[in-house]
TrEMBL record:
Family annotation (PANTHER family): HTH-TYPE TRANSCRIPTIONAL DUAL REGULATOR CECR, HTH-TYPE TRANSCRIPTIONAL REGULATOR RUTR
DNA-binding residue intervals: 33-52
Domain (HTH tetR-type) ranges: 10-70
InterPro entries on file: Homeodomain-like_sf, HTH-type_TetR-like_transc_reg, HTH_TetR, Tet_transcr_reg_TetR-rel_C_sf, TetR_C_Proteobacteria
GO molecular function, one term: transcription cis-regulatory region binding
Keyword Glycoprotein among UniProt keywords: no
Protein name (database record): AcrR family transcriptional regulator
Organism of origin: Catenuloplanes niger
Length: 203
């Protein structure tokens, strides 16, 4: 494809994903037809089907777009648990703060009873890759002898939970919940200090 056609295709893809997200929220995953999504996006049904042959493929795209960059996070160098966890924590906070993230979780939660596969896709393609980055880093610190982490999976869950429980989950249920950039930094730093106090071998 030429650069121009690639740009047009990307623009149409973005319109489709945005329209699908809104209709999944308004109508539910089941009732939001691909034809209606194409209409709301202002594209032909042929264009939509060319990029997303099924509704499941379209939902996959919403998940991938929401978490884009999460699975590309590099595992920090070992030797400084505070620095490594700070890097990972701030990246995670940035992912959770993206505008479409709350909408994605609302879709998954609303459709969980009828479409549990959406939650599985969300976890497998969304959070799990970033979770594995944190776990891999903790394993590396343990193997280097700089951290005493008997259960890296539990430790990664604890770390990400401390961040998301303040920065993200209240946004789903508390109207008007906002967090200043300064507070984001403070929440991540507090989570890091807690982890270092618990797991840093030097401490």
């Amino acid at each position: 494809m030429t650069t121009y056609h690639q740009r047009v295709a990307q623009q149409k893809r973005a319109l489709i994903v945005r329209a699908a997200t809104q209709l999944f929220l308004e109508l539910g995953y089941d009732r939001a037809s691909l034809a209606r999504i194409a209409e709301e996006a202002g594209v032909s049904k042929a264009t939509l089907f060319k990029q997303f042959p099924t509704k499941a493929a379209l939902f996959d795209a919403i998940v991938i777009d929401s978490w884009a960059g999460g699975d590309d996070a590099e595992v920090p160098s070992v030797g400084d648990l505070t620095a490594g966890l700070t890097t990972l924590g701030r990246h995670y906070a940035a992912l959770l703060g993206r505008p479409g993230m709350v909408d994605l979780f609302r879709i998954v939660i609303a459709e969980l009873p009828r479409f549990p596969e959406l939650a599985k896709v969300h976890f497998a393609e969304g959070k799990l890759p970033y979770f594995e980055t944190v776990r891999t880093y903790l394993v590396a610190e343990r193997d280097a002898g700089t951290a005493d982490v008997a259960d890296p999976r539990m430790a990664a869950t604890q770390f990400l939970g401390m961040i998301s429980n303040y920065l993200f989950w209240p946004r789903l249920v508390v109207p008007g919940w906002t967090v200043t950039p300064e507070r984001v930094v403070a929440v991540v730093d507090d989570a890091v200090r807690t982890m270092v106090a618990r797991y840093d071998r030097a401490g």
